[in-house]
Amino acid sequence: MPESPEVQALAEALDERFTGREIRDVDVIEFRTTKTRTRPPTALVGERVTGATRHGKHLDLAVGASQHLVVSLGRHGWARVREVDGAALPEDAPPALVALTFDDGGVLEFTDAGGWVSIGLSVVDDPAEVPAVAKLGPDPADPDFSRADFDRAVVGRRKQVKAVLQEQESLAGIGNAYSDEILHTAKFSPVVHAAALTEAERDRLFEATTGVIADAIAARRGIPIDQLKAAKVAAMRVHGRAGEPCPVCGDTIRDFSFASTIAQYCPTDQTHGELLPLREGSTAE
């Protein structure tokens, strides 16, 4: 699932490539991607892009005087740019579900590699008209994000700290992968309740949260759009690394079941050697 560092890099790349360009055509191949049926993406034909930004994991293309194309990327959604003289797509490339053609011949395509359509496009006057954007909590990547913002999300929460980190209403932009990385950096068990953390432990978690996200954004900046997902995978220290040695202590990284997915942790660094449960039928290898 795209998370804030990759979506930030995507937004910056699209801002540089398409700001000032006129949308000449919009082809909606998969109608289920359109979430504002009375204002489909085709209504943007003839308008110019005025910028691209991010809200949590959501992409926002500002268009014309006051319109926004908000793209909720979902679990497997992404974007790609096809130039007039560009190379052919690989055979296993996911199909385009929506394509925007610009006045210089460039095409911005939105794709979804999942087994169901998780990507959604909304045309609105204010990004907050999209419910998922309206309910977003403060963003740890925001320069104004404070310890007070963090404490409001964490203090007193009788909820596993990994769940709090991924709760978009509490902290915007973090998902399964970066919550694993944050907790490994802070050396916390993912299943400890947020309410059990001391002030000193919250200090450590705050620093890990802001640091991991800021470092990841800096590392992704400037990477070509089609390489961002691979760069994310390559940069992970524990997420997706089950069976490999921990880069800090050398212990074997393990899988554990979390909500409807699988996450990873280091027993030595995070759980004092305790092995967390893995859903029946899953494997740690």
Automatic annotation (TrEMBL):
<keyword id="KW-0511">Multifunctional enzyme</keyword>
<dbReference type="GO" id="GO:0003906">
    <property type="term" value="F:DNA-(apurinic or apyrimidinic site) endonuclease activity"/>
</dbReference>
<dbReference type="Pfam" id="PF06827">
    <property type="entry name" value="zf-FPG_IleRS"/>
</dbReference>
<keyword id="KW-0863">Zinc-finger</keyword>
<keyword id="KW-0378">Hydrolase</keyword>
<dbReference type="InterPro" id="IPR010663">
    <property type="entry name" value="Znf_FPG/IleRS"/>
</dbReference>
<dbReference type="InterPro" id="IPR012319">
    <property type="entry name" value="FPG_cat"/>
</dbReference>
<keyword id="KW-0456">Lyase</keyword>
<keyword id="KW-0238">DNA-binding</keyword>
<dbReference type="GO" id="GO:0003684">
    <property type="term" value="F:damaged DNA binding"/>
</dbReference>
<dbReference type="InterPro" id="IPR015886">
    <property type="entry name" value="H2TH_FPG"/>
</dbReference>
<keyword id="KW-0234">DNA repair</keyword>
<dbReference type="GO" id="GO:0008270">
    <property type="term" value="F:zinc ion binding"/>
</dbReference>
<dbReference type="GO" id="GO:0006284">
    <property type="term" value="P:base-excision repair"/>
</dbReference>
<dbReference type="InterPro" id="IPR010979">
    <property type="entry name" value="Ribosomal_uS13-like_H2TH"/>
</dbReference>
<dbReference type="Pfam" id="PF01149">
    <property type="entry name" value="Fapy_DNA_glyco"/>
</dbReference>
<keyword id="KW-0479">Metal-binding</keyword>
<keyword id="KW-0862">Zinc</keyword>
<dbReference type="InterPro" id="IPR035937">
    <property type="entry name" value="FPG_N"/>
</dbReference>
<comment type="similarity">
    <text>Belongs to the FPG family.</text>
</comment>
<dbReference type="Pfam" id="PF06831">
    <property type="entry name" value="H2TH"/>
</dbReference>
<dbReference type="InterPro" id="IPR000214">
    <property type="entry name" value="Znf_DNA_glyclase/AP_lyase"/>
</dbReference>
<dbReference type="GO" id="GO:0034039">
    <property type="term" value="F:8-oxo-7,8-dihydroguanine DNA N-glycosylase activity"/>
</dbReference>
<protein>
    <submittedName>
        <fullName>Fpg/Nei family DNA glycosylase</fullName>
    </submittedName>
</protein>
<feature type="domain" description="Formamidopyrimidine-DNA glycosylase catalytic">
    <location>
        <begin position="2"/>
        <end position="117"/>
    </location>
</feature>
<keyword id="KW-0326">Glycosidase</keyword>
<dbReference type="GO" id="GO:0016829">
    <property type="term" value="F:lyase activity"/>
</dbReference>
<keyword id="KW-0227">DNA damage</keyword>
<feature type="domain" description="FPG-type">
    <location>
        <begin position="237"/>
        <end position="271"/>
    </location>
</feature>
